[in-house]
Structures are given as C-alpha cells and as structure tokens.
Amino acid sequence: MPILDAHTFEFFSKSPEQTRRLGIRLGALLQPGDLICLQGDLGAGKTTLVQGVARGWGALDEVSSPTFVLVNAYRRPNGTQLSHFDAFRVESLGEAEELDLDALLARGPLLIEWPERVEPILPVERLWAWLEYESEEHRSMRFAAHGTRYESLLDTLRQTIYGAD
Length: 165
Prior knowledge:
alpha/beta, eight-stranded mixed β-sheet, globular
C-alpha cells in the first residue's frame, strides 16, 4: 500500500490472521501512556486488530469485545495493563470522563474503539486508525500519527511491516 506522507500509511489486510499479525507488531511497540484510536463500522476488524495488539504487547488475558463492560483490562506478568475501551455505548462525554482515561493511560497503553464518540476528551497526541470492511476477508486500514511519539511509533511500525525505506 502507498505511504501517504510521513505521518500516515495504509495497510490492506487479506485475512483476520493478517490483521492480528499487524496488531502483534503494533502491540510490541506500545508503552504506557500510548493512545491508539480505532475507528470503523461494525465488522471492520477493530477487535481482531486488538487481539493482535494484546498478544504482541504480552497480555496474559484473552481479548473479547468490551461492548457491554466499556473497558477490559489485559494484564502482563509485571502488573502493567493494556486497557481496551469501547465507546459505542457511552451516552455522554461526562460518562466517558468518569472512566478517568488519564488513570488508564498511566497504567499502560489504551486502545479505544469508536473514539469519535469521545474525541473532545481525548489527548491531542495519539495514533488514529480507520478500519474499513472491504469484503468477507479483506480490510483496509489507514493510520495517522498525531504527535512526535506517534510519528516515531508509526515509522517503526512501517519499517517492521515493509522493511527499511
């Protein structure tokens, strides 16, 4: 897929396993405080990508969609956690603020599905991913870095996927 600019790139996945493998590579790069926003319709592959991210990050727990509990936490043996927040059922920004996203970010990386619903309360610096359903097995993904940390993260991710420029 073409590199759109230094802050953005696209990836076309041909299977759920390929989406998970991309997630594994991303997860291996995450640090506490990293915010990854995953925007896309139902069936776009957000939870599949999160499964890979959690595996690459080193989570001990099985990933499931947090649609009914809002936030799932996946632990590492050292006690740090990866938080997975689904904003689909959040009724208001006030309800989202009660989740204390800053505290979640302090404990480890935070992945948010349906981030557009809570965007006004999100940190400006983040990695934003748009996922789209193309066909039964195929998904397109576009990643955009906002901030120096995320530019570096995206550059490293791009190198692990496509090799050196």
